Amino acid sequence: MTIAKGRDQLTEKQRRWQHHIEQWAQSGQSQAEYCRQHNLKIRRFNYFKSRLKKKNIPVQFVEIPVEPVQAPLFLKLNIGSDFQVEIPDGFSQATLAKVLQVIGGI
Predict the structure, then answer these.
(1) What residues form DSSP beta bridges with 83?
(2) Is 24 among the domain residues?
(3) What pLDDT, on the 0 to 100 scale, is given for residue 57?
(4) How many domains does the chain have?
(5) Could you give the CA distance from residue 19 to residue 59 in angstroms, rounded to a whole number?
(6) DSSP codes of every residue in 31-89
(7) Are 10 and 38 found together in one domain?
(8) What's the average pLDDT block by block, 10 residues per block, for the chain (106 residues)?
(9) Cβ-count burial 25-52 (b if 16+ within 10 Å, e if not)
């Protein structure tokens, strides 16, 4: 075996493992599940995942869509240490004025 042939085999092996790593990343499976399904040894999988990362061979990332969470919109009004009023978005000004009058009279 020549040195060049050894390098070619290593490159082919790297490509094969890179393919598996990319497929695993997109599969949503654990490493163990993926390796079982593809008859791979998990220790070899981890070895090549680490080795390819060190060689700066790009790993493909998968974008996971995130739905924005709508936080409740409200204002907290602390009156001294005894009262706290939560005022939701769109709260009536007239009602708020009445609540403040009642609190002010206590």
Answers:
(1) 79
(2) yes
(3) 54
(4) 2
(5) 9
(6) HHHHHHHTT--HHHHHHHHHHHHHTT----------PPP----EEEEEETTTEEEEEET
(7) yes
(8) 46 87 90 93 90 68 82 81 82 84 78
(9) eeeeeeeeebbeeeebeeeebeebbeeb
Residues 10 and 48 in one domain: yes
Give phi and psi for 86, each to the nearest 5. Answer: -100, 120
In a domain, 66, yes or no: no
Say what the alpha-carbon torsion angle 32, 34, 40, 45 is, to the nearest 10 degrees: -70
CA 75, CA 66: separation in Å to the nearest integer? 27
Is the whole model's pTM more than 0.85, yes or no? no
Q: Supply the range of the domain harboring residue 84.
A: 74-104
